[in-house]
Design a protein that fits this description.
By secondary structure, this protein is an alpha/beta fold. The chain contains 13 helices and 9 strands. The chain has helices at residues 13-34, 60-69, 74-79, 89-100, 121-128, 149-156, 169-175, 182-189, 191-201, 206-223, 253-265, 283-287, 296-303; strands at 41-45, 80-85, 113-115, 135-139, 162-167, 228-235, 242-250, 270-271, 274-275. The longest helix is centred in the N-terminal third of the chain and has 22 residues, at 13-34.
Length: 304
């Protein structure tokens, strides 16, 4: 299922921030990978949407397109293959029109490709059985249908391949113990991982439960040789609970450090230059408090 029309009516702050994180990492990733003189590098967005919100703001595909066209390293323009997919043909047609009229599109040697494919197990199998060019993939479905940890593994298994995916914690978390949702939730984790999770989270408090689920996700990827897993949480308007995560996967410490720096700078709160490594709408209220004097570095010095 593609993203709904209402989702693209107006850009929210979390959506803007997600797109900025992805586009900034794309620029840095393309710089590093293109320096290895590979004949082709690639960016793959599996749930792209139409490219622009109805309020006029560009979404991730157009930010990526702009970064590719105007990248400071011209080799990126000559070697990048941009591929956008959305299961809704209407979104694909809108995105095609945005691409065709985009300023400077002629600078790209390889014209961007668009598809309207459903992301299913067959899609995963196809990528598991091929070796891909260095690829940065972005997986941001509406809800969680189409997302699976094996899909991320298939896209990130080869050299130079990193992945960023949307993990809808608010919907996945209650589904773990809901037998009616066993099929779609097992598609996300696999039946084996889901079975382990059900045992581990049983009767756990929300904070501990969340920690267990994230640890299991990291454990799965590390078992596949993808040692660097960096989650960036987004909180509800009240700031009291996590709603979803943007999770970054890489096999390379350099990619991990680059993304960590990006996520740190784009965190919603910094105290004594220490980032919160999350987006929390309530942080705006904290920044406005004149008597807010929490100083984590000073407190750390006192406790040493």
């Amino acid at each position: 299922m593609g993203k709904t029309d209402s989702f693209f009516a107006k850009q929210t702050e979390p959506s803007r921030l997600k797109a900025e994180i992805v586009s900034k990492y794309f620029s840095a990733w393309a710089n590093v990978i293109s320096s290895r003189n590979k004949p082709k590098i690639a960016y793959l967005d599996l749930f792209s949407g139409p490219g622009r919100y109805e309020d006029g703001n560009p979404s991730t595909p157009l930010l990526i397109l702009d970064n590719a066209i105007n990248h400071w390293k011209q080799r990126v323009q000559r070697t990048i293959q941009l591929t956008f997919n959305d299961s809704d043909p209407r979104n694909v047609e809108k995105l095609k029109r945005e691409i065709e009229k985009f300023p400077g599109i002629e600078k790209l040697k390889i014209h961007p490709k668009t598809y309207d494919l459903e992301i299913d197990n067959k899609f995963v199998e196809n990528f598991e059985n091929i070796t891909t060019a260095p690829t940065l993939s972005f997986i941001d479905p509406w809800g969680y249908k189409g997302l699976s940890l094996p899909l991320v593994r298939a896209l990130a298994k080869d050299w130079g391949c990193d992945s960023i995916f949307f993990f809808n914690y608010r919907r996945i978390n209650p589904g773990i113990e809901n037998l009616a949702l066993e099929r779609p939730i097992s598609d996300v984790f696999s039946s084996e991982v889901l079975g382990r999770l059900r045992e581990k989270v049983l009767e756990k408090e929300p904070v501990e439960r969340e920690k267990i689920i994230l640890q299991e996700v990291k454990k799965v990827f590390k078992g596949w040789g993808m040692d660097y897993v960096l989650p960036f949480p987004f909180k509800s308007a009240s700031g009291k609970r996590k709603t979803h995560y943007l999770i970054f996967i890489t096999k390379n410490i350099l990619g991990y450090n680059i993304m960590k720096e990006i996520m740190g700078k784009l965190s919603s709160l910094h105290i004594q230059d220490v980032p919160s490594f999350e987006y929390n709408p309530a942080d705006a209220k904290i920044r406005q408090l004149p008597l807010f004097e929490e100083k984590p570095i000073d407190n750390l010095k006192k406790n040493c």
